[in-house]
Amino acid sequence: MNHKLVESIKKDAIPLKDFNDYSPLMKKVAEAKFVLLGESSHGTSEYYQIRAKLSKQLIQEKGFTFIAVEGDWPACQHINRYIKSYDNRYKNAREALTAFGRWPAWMWANEELIDLIEWMKTYNQDRPKEEQVGFYGVDVYSLWESMEEIIKYLEKTNSPDLETAKKAFACFEPFNRDPQLYGVSGSFYSEDCKDEVVKLLTEITLEKKKYTSYYEEGKLNLEVNAIVAANAENYYRTMVTDDTESWNIRDRHMVEVLNKISSFYGEKAKGIVWEHNTHVGDARATDMAEVGMVNVGQLLREQNADDEVFIVGFGTHRGTVIAADEWGVDFERMIVPPAQEGSWEDVMHKAGPHDKLLIFDKNNHDSYTDSIGHRAIGVVYNPRYEQYGNYVPSIMSERYDAFIYINNTNALQPLEVERVLL
């Protein structure tokens, strides 16, 4: 056991007994333009609950203007339009969350998110449009859904670019919305739609000033969907041949969209980002850097001043989690075994089997510069084999600005609802 590291944690960590104990964290983000809130799994209830509470406080007390999540742009637009009362198609947040239909839907269609969405809607009600907070998805997967949104917009506005969009969408039709099939075709047989989507993105980007918006945030929606289409095409074409480059395409895309959202909100823009630790925790402090991988946390730190980006990691020692044992199959409630001996989560547990907050600063930075295994659970997970691939070597004081440790965690509560037909 690393006794020195355990003693450092005992000395530096703040026990978390109630939400007031997060006050030191709030003080640290005073100048931040982006606060990144991680998670060590996509299926842990406490991570969502704590991030929701922190997000409310950041919005109320620090003037943050939007939440951006590791979700699809088109689906998250349903939530954004609900909380900003742009339309009344949904009666409540539970109904709005049925917009998340693509696997793994549980990441956002869950009980834990309902309260935050209703709170954001209430918060916005008495504010002018320019002061309302938004909710956005910054992921890259929604190729077909984003193309549909583009066509819908161009049809409504009688745009001369409609035929270009239809031609691009038609190129993808033979692949029956199967990303793997498209990726193989594009990578190995040079049968791709790159030229079509690049032409579409170019026309929309260069001519965006000419577009009339028939609904609020319409121009932003159009431009981001065009970016998604172009980057998703590149991502799916690359993923079958180069895991590292496809990862980089995805994370660079997420930062590109974050910057588009920030530009939309102007000088007052301050974003809260909800993503997995592997995306928000600076890749340069992990073994990801050795193979040339970058991520959102690294890129935002490189693009902004030191005090403008604040990264919070999350982790647990044991509990339960929602995940699947292979891609695309039904989720399960799984046991998360006690953390691997010698890992970061194991050391945190040995420093006291209670919840705790650790803030890294110049006074304690050097105590946490040894590389140590740090648990990461994805949407696909097998507890029996996690020692072979679920621990990322990390320099914790360089990967994060703070770390929230929850000793025992519980599985997320996915919604059991039928999708609303629109």
From TrEMBL:
PANTHER family: ESTERASE, PUTATIVE (AFU_ORTHOLOGUE AFUA_1G05850)-RELATED. This is Erythromycin esterase family protein. It comes from Mesobacillus maritimus. The lineage of its organism: Bacteria, Bacillati, Bacillota, Bacilli, Bacillales. SUPFAM superfamilies: EreA/ChaN-like.
